[in-house]
Structures are given as C-alpha cells and as structure tokens.
Design brief:
The protein has 2 domains: 32 residues; 142 residues, Rieske [2Fe-2S] iron-sulphur domain (Rieske Iron-sulfur Protein). It contains 4 helices and 11 strands; from the N terminus they run H-H-E-E-E-H-E-E-E-E-E-E-E-E-H. It has a 4-stranded antiparallel β-sheet, with no helix packed on it. The chain has a 4-stranded antiparallel β-sheet with strand order 6-7-8-9, with no helix packed on it. Strands 1-11-10 form a 3-stranded antiparallel β-sheet. Strand 2 and strand 3 form a beta hairpin. The relative contact order is 0.14. Bound molecules: FE2/S2 (inorganic) cluster. The site of FE2/S2 (inorganic) cluster has 10 residues, from loops.
C-alpha cells in the first residue's frame, strides 16, 4: 500500500513539476522581446517593400515606428510649404531619401504627452486625438500643443535597407540641424 502511495506521490510531483515548467516557459515567452528587437535593439527594414502613400507601423525597441513612402503629391505639398516655414529647416529634410524616393520614418508617439497619433489618408496628415495636436504628412508639427514634429529614430542606410538603432551620417545631420532629438 505504501509503495502505491509512494508511486502516486512521485507521479503527482512529476506532474506538478511539468506544470510549473510549462508555466515558466509560457512566462518566458511573454517576457521575451520581439524577434526584431533581439539583435541588440536593431531593426532592419527594406524600404523597397513599402507602397506609396500607405502608412505601415513597425516596432523598434517597443516603440511604434511609422514608415511611409511619399507620393508625388505629398512631396509637392511639403515643398510648397518651404518658403513659408520659419522653423529653420525644410519639411522635406525630415524625410529619408533612397535613390529618387522619399520616406517618412518616425516614432509614432506624440511629442506632447506620448499618445499615438492617427494618420488621416483623406487629408494626408496626422491627428493626435488626445489634445488635438496635428502633424503634416512629413510628421512635422502643424498644430499645437505638440512642441515639435514626431521624432526620428536613429538610423543608418545600407542600400535600400534601413537599420534602426544605428547612427549613420544622414541621421547625424538631422540631429545637427535640429530636425529631431535623440530618442
Ligand atoms: S498627447 Fe498628443 S496632443 Fe497631447
């Protein structure tokens, strides 16, 4: 009888142990960073995969990253504002140029208090619903309270690929020109 009890006890113990292992594995899966975040916080995107005028939200170090290839009309709008801007930089300088194409790549968190602004395809701009802040199609600030345009993550270009998390010369130039702050 006691042998049987011993056996039952061991079997139950093993079962409980397996359950605990399973729970630990599930918890670890939850804690694990996304695959894109694993490589020391670098995320590589191939810009040739993005369609004109379509906003895609990627993730980098837990932050949403807006990526959009500019249409001809968007570029014309941005250029048309250049003469009237008093910000010390041109809107178009916020964009990343690869070959003949221009891309918006920015952190999708409002520079006011951190809400996620929504893109409005009909007006080709961004609205932050929290306090009504607005951004242009290049994600420069259009209407307060945001104090500045959406920040640009550190990036390095390698052909059509962009590596988020590395600081290449184009990004350093943006920092030096006050187009973005370090995030
Ligand atoms: S958090 Fe966006 S306007 Fe306040």
């Amino acid at each position: 009888m006691s042998d049987r009890r011993d056996f039952m006890g061991k079997a139950l113990g093993a079962f409980a142990g397996l359950g605990a292992l399973g729970a630990l594995y599930a918890a670890k899966k939850t804690w694990d960073p996304l695959p894109s975040v694993k490589a020391a916080g670098f995320t590589t995107l191939d810009l040739k995969d993005y369609k004109e005028g379509e906003l895609v939200t990627e993730m980098w170090r837990g932050k949403p990253i807006f990526v959009m290839k500019m249409t001809k009309k968007m570029l014309e709008k941005a250029k048309a504002r250049e003469d009237s801007t008093a910000k010390g930089h041109k809107d178009i300088e916020r964009l990343i140029k690869v070959g003949n194409d221009y891309y918006l790549v920015c952190v999708g968190l409002c520079t006011h208090l951190g809400c996620i602004p929504g893109y409005r395809p009909e007006t080709q701009d961004f609205l932050c619903a929290c306090h009504g802040g607005q951004y242009t199609e290049t994600a420069d600030v259009k209407k307060a309270p945001p104090p500045r345009g959406l920040d640009i993550p550190p990036f390095k270009l390698n052909g059509t690929k962009i590596i988020l998390g590395e600081e290449g010369p184009e990004y350093k130039k943006m920092l030096a020109n006050g187009i973005t702050q370090r995030v």
